[in-house]
Amino acid sequence: VSALLMPTIFKAPAQPAAEKPRPAQEIVQAFPANDVTKTAWKVHWSTEAGPGLIIRSAWFKRDAKTSWLQVLGDARVAELFIPYHRGDPRFWDVEQSFSLCRATAEDAGAHGKLLGDPTEVVWELRDRGVAWVDPKGPRRGQTMVLWATLSAANYRYIVEFGFQDDGAVTFRLGATGQNYAGAEWEPHMHNNLWRINVALGGPAHNSVYVMEHLETPQLAGKAQTVHRPFNGGKEGWLDWNAERFTMLRVVSDKLKNAQGKPMSYDLMPSRMGNARHYGPGEECVQHDFWVTRNRPGEFKYKEVLEYAKNRESIMNTDVVLWYSSPAHHEPRSEDGEIRDGSLHGATPVMWSGFELKPRHVFDRTPLHR
Ligand SMILES: [Cu+2]
User: Fold this and answer.
1) How confident is the model at residue 369 (pLDDT cuts 50, 70, 90)?
2) Cα 186 to averaged position of ligand 1 atoms, centre (Å)
3) What is the pTM of this model?
4) Cα–Cα distance measured from residue 298 to residue 226, given in angstroms and rounded to the nearest whole number
5) Could you tell me the sign of the dihedral formed by the alpha carbons of 176, 178, 182, 185, in that order?
6) 175 alpha carbon to ligand 1 midpoint, in Å?
């Protein structure tokens, strides 16, 4: 595995002065890791106080002979908003510019590697279980995972990006640490708010659609799948509907696969529920999806209403998906105990996230014999 890990420094593109990220680093991972290469990812990442670990761009190879296909531009946790049920506190934790924890051999485990100077990021190549089963049997899959831990006072947030051998990308936020002193048993919401610049085939020529499954009494036992431009093809918002299996699709207006179908990536939600909060300045968390054009310097989830207000076109352009993956935390005895006036223990990690899944990027089943 180690021979296939080839991190190299490359020169970072110019960033706005306020951003001050560390220089981006490149990592290339071929799949399967211990056999003839079938697919590969090339990922540029950097770290920064606030969002912690940032994917600056990511390219995929659907087979060893093709050139790199860009999939992502900047992808990050844009905000972590934690309002407590009693009304306060209401923390915006990315805005607080917390730093990453130093990553140690304990973080990396037996098979991980530490990246960065100082070491803040963990690289792991993981078996991801069965990728598919056909009449001849199963095939197991692999994923390259990059993760880091934000040190947010009493809390710790694990920011994790996974780049799978089948072209899918996973985004996960794990909340752990110690419950807030004085409110140890107070339920609260973890609004994990992501900003994803999908740049399929490069940062232009992408359009955002909505997919919904429709099954109503009027359809009398039949169902329909409805595809339509997101918000009429303009910047704006959408809510997730459990009955409709709401999902977003970013479609390339240029690239087609060998079957003549437009290359796309689907945002697949995987949700516990829809968080809604009604304090002042919390309008951004009254909807589950936002889409805007990609403009320099627009990274604050709280400002997304402002970014979207001109209702510019999100068709055949450079697009950003803003997505909420909320997690409701109802404290348990398992989170710890108060002894001698202080909390002893730790909140076990609670994960939430979503997946970007390729559609018509391959011509056939990835990694098939
Ligand atoms: Cu919590």
Assistant:
1) confident
2) 9
3) 0.93
4) 31
5) positive
6) 6
